[in-house]
Design goal:
By secondary structure, the protein is mainly alpha-helical. The protein has helices at residues 2-22, 28-68, 74-112, 115-121, 126-164, 169-174, 182-208, 213-244. Helix 2 (28-68) packs antiparallel against helix 3, helix 3 runs antiparallel to helix 5 and helix 3 (74-112) runs antiparallel to helix 8.
């Protein structure tokens, strides 16, 4: 019953935040600041993680394609996998680990120090001031980081195929769109937008309602990462089925 009650509280919290997003004013400067912080914190980790995945995919794919003499399709395999799944999921995991945990810690500390209560006493909407900018920041930053990660993943595949295995660079780039469509790119961006919403709402909810002092803040940070990653990995299956399930 407690889990059902927590889900109900989260739904109400999400509805309250959503209403404030749809009814400006917004803290534009705060939103931009948080977006910049997430982007700068996650840029290097996203690149460092997705690039080697692209390398590994090219390495394994090349062995299979060599059996059928279809090495020219390697870049298409890498691009489809990176745009649809690898970059969206990996970029979102790192946003949850870096940005989401930071937001949960910040709001949790503000709750423990009674700063959020003081904001409400001064007749300032704490959700609009402190929560909405952070949610919007994850919504904006996650697709951007996904796009950068996609480029890094394709670059990793190029490095393995051309620099390490001696494939022709022109063939790699010439066939990169053979099986890939614009819907793959936009589908990945849409998925990461949804993931950004989930990460932002879960992180701010955990921090906003943190209790129990420093230990409570730590629990909020841990729960943010675990719950948000679980939530968007589950959502990823349904989004992939809806966006790409009918594509042959």
């Amino acid at each position: 019953m407690e889990r059902i009650a927590a889900l109900g509280r989260f739904t109400i919290f999400s509805a309250r935040v959503g209403w404030r997003v749809l009814t400006p004013w917004w803290e534009v400067q705060e939103t931009a600041r948080h977006t910049w912080l997430i982007a700068t914190r996650c840029l290097l980790p996203v690149t460092a993680v997705v690039f080697p995945f692209g390398m590994v995919m090219a390495l394994q794919g090349l062995e299979i394609f060599e059996i059928f003499g279809a090495q020219r399709l390697l870049s298409s395999l890498v691009s489809v996998a990176v745009f649809r799944e690898l970059s969206p999921v990996l970029a979102s995991v790192l946003v949850a680990a870096q940005g989401g945990s930071a937001f949960a810690a910040e709001l949790g500390a503000m709750r423990i120090k009674e700063e959020l209560d003081a904001t409400e006493i001064m007749a300032i909407d704490s959700l609009r001031t402190h929560v909405v900018p952070r949610v919007l920041a994850t919504v904006i930053a996650t697709p951007i980081l996904n796009l950068i990660g996609s480029i890094a993943g394709i670059g990793g595949g190029f490095f393995t195929a051309v620099c390490l295995k001696g494939e022709t660079a022109g063939v790699y780039w010439g066939n990169i769109w053979a099986l890939t469509h614009s819907s793959d790119v936009f589908g990945g961006l849409f998925k990461t937008t949804v993931f950004g919403v989930l990460i932002g709402l879960i992180a701010t909810y955990q921090g906003y309602y943190a209790t129990g002092g420093a230990a409570g803040v730590g629990k909020a940070v841990n729960d943010t990462v675990v719950i948000s990653v679980t939530a968007f990995v589950i959502a990823n299956y349904f989004l992939t089925s809806a966006l790409f399930g009918a594509i042959q």
